Structures
1.
Amino acid sequence: MRWLLNSRTWSPSSSQFSYCLSLLPTPQQDEIIRFVKFEDQKRYILSRLMQQMLIHVVFNIPYKEIVISRTKEGKPYVEPCYLNASAPNVNFSVSHHGDYVALASETLCLVGLDIMGDEGNDEPEEYIKNFRSYFTVLEWDNINSAGQDGRQLLDQFHRYWCMKESYIKAVGIGIGFELRRAEFFFKDGNIWGDSPCLRLDGIERTDWHFYLFHLRDNHWVCVSKGPPGDAIESFKKTLHTINVSDVSLAHVLKQKDPAFTELTIMDIIPVATLEGQTNLI
Ligand SMILES: CC(C)(COP(=O)(O)OP(=O)(O)OC[C@H]1O[C@@H](n2cnc3c(N)ncnc32)[C@H](O)[C@@H]1OP(=O)(O)O)[C@@H](O)C(=O)NCCC(=O)NCCS
């Protein structure tokens, strides 16, 4: 699945907001209302509703019975008891940034997803300097050769940032990974290409595939796919089949990444609870 939802265009009344919040487990509700900004609260609600919907759709589990746990590093995962030989490694990754919330899921390989958008950066050159230490020399050169204007500089910075984060999120690392260990490059030298390659600790990883998509209003999203054996230990324990045959893995990894399906709030609300609720958009 590749799902995308524009959170900016969702303007719930306070009762609609409370209703959507009530569809989540109480601890998650508490977590969400602690965010000060309404936009953050909205993005988190949408992200968590999307995750519930994924489990419901893939495993046909009633909403009330869905449990989504997290590794100690924070990666959400499907309870291993739901996994089986035909859906061995159902895993997913979500991101909420700027105007968008998105989710990507896979049944066999690992998947990571990250979105980057503008945060009102008036001085792109000054802004990106703060992140110099996270990039290799090659990456920094590529970012800075993006073009003359600040827009291109920011776009290229966002592209590189979401490549790195999509890898981190696929393997489940979270905070603590030295981002320069994962160097991204474009084989044909076109830094605006949509299929970057990964060198990890200096070694090219042809078993990882990355796809960049340009979304509206200067947002970029990167989806990564890689072998289950690369998951960190805590996340690996949640998967069913780590040793996947090279042939089946190569088949999945080489497929072109599907386009995102754009959803609305009405698509991610459990239908059975909708009675009496209208105009949630
Ligand atoms: C975990 C992390 C990858 C989240 O990324 P983010 O850009 O802050 O936020 P996003 O909206 O893209 O992603 C949030 C989602 O990441 C997921 N996530 C959290 N921890 C995760 C982990 N260890 N692995 C994979 N996914 C994780 C969650 O699903 C979360 O959404 P949810 O709470 O609604 O379920 C990020 O905070 C992080 O740790 N980065 C480390 C990289 C680093 O060192 N950066 C330098 C800091 S300046």
2.
Amino acid sequence: MSSPYKLTQGQEITNVRKTLDITRKEFSDALGFSIEEEKTMKLWENDKEVIPKIIYNKIITFPTTPPLLPPTKESCRFTQIDLFAGIGGIRQGFQRHGGRTVFSSEWDKFAAKTYRINYGETPEGDITQIDVKDIPEHDILLAGFPCQPFSQAGLKKGFEDARGTLFFNIAEILRYKRPKAFMLENVKQLRGHDKGNTLKTILAILEELNYYVPTPEVLNAYHFGVPQNRERIIIVGFDKNCLPTDFKEFQYPNGNITNEICVGDILDAQVSDRFTISDKLYEGHLGRRKLHKEKGNGFGFCLFNANSKHTNTISARYYKDGSEALIEQEGKNPRMLTPRECARLQGFPEEFIIPVSNAQAYKQFGNSVCINVIEAVAKSMLDYLEQYNIL
Ligand SMILES: C[S@@+](CC[C@H](N)C(=O)[O-])C[C@H]1O[C@@H](n2cnc3c(N)ncnc32)[C@H](O)[C@@H]1O
């Protein structure tokens, strides 16, 4: 007689999913299941169908503890806060140098779920609702913040010009908490946003707060070891109260232009047909391309193969039709990149868990950063701070 306490296989696999607190659809996507397997998941969980051994093993060995836990309080080199955290790409770049996150904020529930499952922390919600006094002391502030115009543009009230924008919340934390340094990340277009006024106002406020802010730099992921053409503006700053009066100029990392990387580096050897785009979608792409060509503007969708040097920038809208980067296939319509391939294009490690649907995963990786770039910026910042014994 079997023990009354022994779980059935269905209960065991349900437990794995429940521990992760994700839906069957999300779990199927995370496991790379076919649509058929996704549909059968419920029957397996309810012991209505026998679970094939290969599937059972895949589920039972799925990691349920966060793979990217931060260093402990005792072992960390410095502390950081992660604002507009998304799925923690920026956090990881600094964590790799020993940073321990003491506060994070992200209001999107799906991104927060990916964050929790990978780092073991649930971020706080809307940053505008958080009292600055409740934010813990920290060494470095990190934020990949949404770009908004300043409604007070032209009034030149300095700090007050930012009120009502998300940048104001960052500025307020800098003012109250005085971290030793910060790193802000944004789209390259921030430079031209609102005729250059947005960036100008941001820099003026940061300087007014008594931070040394070197001229921001646009860095391209392709120069940092991944086959993606992705340019992002990085703004760093250092508290002048901590620097000597004759402080040196900060140097951003240059990266390295090499011909050794190509799209093939991040492609999976075998990809399910569910990523091949439908005839209807492909016809739509071809039709729009023809139209674009006739009007002489742009290329429409973009095709790449394993030998391409890099893809275009993966954006949050990639899930809609994949137009910025489709992969050629022999004798078939092109295919979308898989979420795991997008993760690699952003420098995420293989152990990073993707616990959301494919559509959400595309959004999350598109919104995130290339970790390699951030890791290099973090190194330059830490070298800079350490030469003055600031950390
Ligand atoms: C460009 S993404 C940053 C992604 C992040 N750097 C990463 O590596 O994944 C901006 C994020 O800010 C979040 N966000 C926007 N407004 C917010 C608010 N008021 N409070 C908290 N999060 C917010 C969005 O949900 C989005 O995930």
